[in-house]
Amino acid sequence: MTSIVSTSQSKSIKLFNEILSILKETEDKNWLDWVVEQIKKLEKVFAIGERKDQLAVIQETRTYLLGGQGSFSDLCLCKENGHNVKDKDEGKINKRFSSLTNKLYVELGQLKFVLENYSEGQN
Predict the structure, then answer these.
(1) If we measure between CA atoms, which residue out of 28, 107, 33 comes closest to residue 66?
(2) Cα 108 from Cα 73, distance rounded (Å)
(3) Fewer CB near the last or first residue (10 Å), C or N of the chain?
(4) What is the pLDDT of residues 8-20, one digit of tens each?
(5) Measured between alpha carbons, how far is 90 from 69 in angstroms, rounded to an integer?
(6) Ramachandran assignment for 68, one of left (phi > 0), alpha (psi -120 to 50 degrees), beta (any other)
């Protein structure tokens, strides 16, 4: 199980860093700090946290990502929202952003499942 968890943790951090890159590129002012904080939380809890703490951070992150109205998934990267993005690039960048967000949600869900359903000694 350790290798599955480690791989999933790495994928999650990589996806979050790709999202962070888009937010920096578009000069987002609302969610940038949250993403940085979540990356730090995930890295810390993956490194030293107990399973219950890992599950709590994963669930918190998943709720903010796609948890309904006012969640991260509501973010539209466009000039009207104060982002540094050209009109012609809005569709492409939002599609990429949405895809990364959805992939991260799924990856964290898979990680949550593994942590909930497999004991430490299993592979």
Answers:
(1) 107
(2) 15
(3) C
(4) 899 999 999 999 9
(5) 21
(6) left
